[in-house]
Structure formats: structure tokens, C-alpha cells
Amino acid sequence: MTKRLCLWSGPRNVSTALMYSFAQRSDTRVVDEPLYAHFLVNHPARGYHPGAELCIQSQDNDGERVVQNVFLAETDSPVVFFKSMAHHLIELDWDFLKQMINVLLIRDPRDMLHSYSKTIEAFNLEDTGYPQLKEIYDYLDEAGIPPMVVDSKTLLQNPETSLRAMCSFAGIPFETAMLSWQSGPKPFEGAWAPYWYHNVHGSTGFIPYHSKTEPFPENLQPLLDSCHPFYAYLKEREEPGF
Prior knowledge:
alpha/beta, five-stranded parallel beta sheet, 5 strands, about 40% helix
């Protein structure tokens, strides 16, 4: 039976590097943000996300079809890794999540907001994914299948330990190949990669975590205050023992 591992993240959370990592496995096929076009045709972000129209043209933008034809599609691959954004889960029945192995990737909003603001000038709480990540956690927890929570800082500080824990959660063996990859664009990336992935294209592995030295933008402080309770809630539920 195919293992369907679904990563739910917010933007700028090291999710693309994690997708690269799983793409190095001998038994895994990766899928990059299959609900992005669906999100764009149902959200004002279509007007301010770079490359939005190109993305919509490149993917099926009917979310229910994507669930059936991508997330739940028959496949010969032993493992499928779906990199997905939590805030893309709009106008959809979430029942299919119960057929996935779900992992939530979080990041300290102080770091995330600073990074995101370099690509998107004006954004709000819903764009950050924090409220939706909490909703996903609560939905699955109430169903008796709580997702694994991983903090991106923990992942960057201890890549092998974190990856081993994720593999254990998914019921698959860890492979050392997951720790490195070739630099440059990847054939499995979405059409939006040129707008969002330029930094990770230069990587060959997980870049060690370093605290930001730039001052936090004052104009983002109210949004940081709004994001923090959601982050703190999920941080308390991070997988212990990392």
C-alpha cells in the first residue's frame, strides 16, 4: 500500500528544502503544492502572488478533482510526498486528510514574516498559514489521528534526527541520501519556482540555522503579535525528543 505523506506548511518555512530531501529517496515521488492553482482562483492572492496566472495555467484549479486525481490517485510509487501550503485548503472537504500521513511544518513567525515580506509586500494573517495549521491540527486530533508537528528551526539544527523522526512517523526507513541534493532547479517543481525558490536552488542540503541579525520591521509587529499564539499552540505539540 502506498504511503501518502502530506506536509502542511506556511510560506517560507523550509518546506521546499524538505521536499528536495524526500525527492532523494529511492522509493518516493514528490508533488509540489498541488492545490496552489485552486487556492489562487478562490482567493484575492491571485492579484498579488507573483506568477499567479502562470500557476493557474499550469495546474488543475478544481480542488476536488485535485484531491481525487492527485492526492488519492493510484500510483506505483511506494511513497508519495505532497508538499502543500495550509492556507491552500479552502473551499474543500477535508475528509481526504484522514487518508494521509500528515506532518505540520512550523516556523517562528519572527523569522517567517521577515522572509515573506521580501517577496510579498502586503499580506495578512490568513496568508501566513498559522491559523490554518492550527485548524488542521485540531481537525485531525479530534479525528484521533493527530499530525506530527516539526519546527523548521529544529529541522535545520538537527536534520538527520528530524528526518529519522518523520520517517518513523510515516512508517518508512530513513535513507542517508535525504541529507543532500544537487543545486539548481528541479523537474518536479511548480511553475512558480522562479519567483519563490531562488535561495533553495543554491543549496545542496539543509542550511544550518542562524539567528537573523537584521532588525524586525516595525510595520510587521501587529501581525507578529497575531501569529504568535497560533505558533505557540503548535510548538507545544512539536514531536518530543528532537
